[in-house]
Design a protein that fits this description.
- The chain is built from 7 helices and 7 strands, in the order H-H-H-E-H-H-E-E-H-E-E-E-H-E.
- It is α+β, with helices and mostly antiparallel strands and about 250 residues long.
- The protein has 2 domains: about 70 residues; about 160 residues, Alpha-Beta Plaits.
- The strands form 2 sheets. It has a 5-stranded mixed sheet with strand order 2-3-1-6-7, with helices on both faces. Strands 4-5 form a two-stranded antiparallel sheet.
- A hairpin with a 2-residue loop joins strand 2 and strand 3.
- Helix 1 packs antiparallel against helix 2 and helix 5 crosses helix 6.
- The longest helix has 27 residues.
- It is elongated.
- It binds guanosine-5'-triphosphate.
- Guanosine-5'-triphosphate (GTP) binds next to helix 6.
- Guanosine-5'-triphosphate binds next to helix 6.
- It is an enzyme of class 2 (transferase).
- GO terms for molecular function: diguanylate cyclase activity.
- It comes from Acidiferrobacter thiooxydans.
- It catalyses: 2 GTP = 3',3'-c-di-GMP + 2 diphosphate.
- Pfam families: GGDEF (PF00990).
Length: about 250
């Protein structure tokens, strides 16, 4: 568990501004302490203490900053590095699939609802052709940041493959998952991104599937993917829920 979880994206605050603010505060404290000890030398032990506090805060801020750089694994729940996507800082494929399997087991055992959202960037191929491969990192970073901001715990976000993300929503049925998907869609559509001086409009489509007891991982994922493809076929920038195909007459 990340000890600074409360400062991370899903914990509410980000560590970067925190490090900058505390660093600046420490600097000001140090300067004030030195100035005061020059004016009133007799009070030097008090000012030395003040300086020590300022220094401790600065060291903490620096350490926090360094950890932030060294550990892209500073993901929402402090997952081990091997489960975190280096580029987007969300869970990677292994991470999100293991979260999904765990959520499925919970749902299966306790009979609680579970939904899955598959999110795909619309026209990713065309975007790449227009902007070049170097735009990929910029777009993925901006998209994952927007998704992370718009999600809440205990929902989990991960990059499943290429331009596709998965969101696991425990205790959530399809209508609520649709609300969440809509929020994510709006968040991504609102990204103001400039690549090589050009404004780039990025949109995402979402496919929602609800876990059915006894369903296996492949079927659950395939349902979410099918809903995503439907949303993209319908023009993109929208969310669709998977609807089970009507049974043939006489089928069980
Ligand atoms: N899993 C999940 N469910 C959500 C999320 N946002 C809303 N919901 C659910 O969707 C339903 C309607 O959400 P809202 O319209 O935001 O209502 P709310 O009463 O403010 O929801 P709460 O935040 O749970 O109090 C509620 O059952 C929420 O729990 C989310 O980010 N993740």
């Amino acid at each position: 568990m990340n000890p600074f979880f409360f400062l991370t994206k899903q914990g509410g605050l980000r560590r970067k501004p925190f490090a900058v603010v505390t660093g600046a505060l420490a600097l000001v404290t140090g300067v004030v302490a030195i100035a005061l000890s020059l004016v009133w030398p007799i009070w030097w032990p008090v000012f030395a203490l003040l300086q020590a506090v300022g220094l401790a805060v600065a060291v903490y801020a620096l350490a926090s900053r360094i950890m932030n750089v060294k550990r892209p694994a500073a993901d929402p729940l402090g997952a081990p590095t091997g489960l975190v996507d280096d580029l987007t800082r969300t869970l990677n494929r292994r991470g999100i699939v293991s979260s999904l399997i765990e959520a499925m087991a919970q749902s299966q055992r306790y009979g609680t609802p579970l939904s899955l959202i598959s999110l795909g960037i619309d026209g990713a191929q065309t975007l790449m052709e227009h902007l070049g491969p170097e735009a990929e990192a910029l777009i993925l970073e901006a998209v994952s940041a927007a998704l992370g901001e718009a999600l809440r715990l205990p929902d989990r976000l991960g990059r499943y493959q290429g331009w596709e993300f998965l969101v696991v929503l425990p205790q959530t049925r399809t209508p609520q998952a649709l609300l969440v998907a809509e929020r994510l869609r709006v968040a991504v559509a609102g990204i103001a991104l400039t690549v090589k001086g050009k404004k780039v409009a990025v949109t995402m489509s979402a496919g929602i599937a609800e876990f059915g007891r006894g369903q296996d991982l492949e079927r659950f994922l395939a349902n979410a993917h099918e809903a995503l493809y439907e949303a993209q076929r319908a023009g993109g920038n929208q969310a669709h829920a998977f609807a089970s195909p009507p049974r043939a007459k006489g089928a069980l």
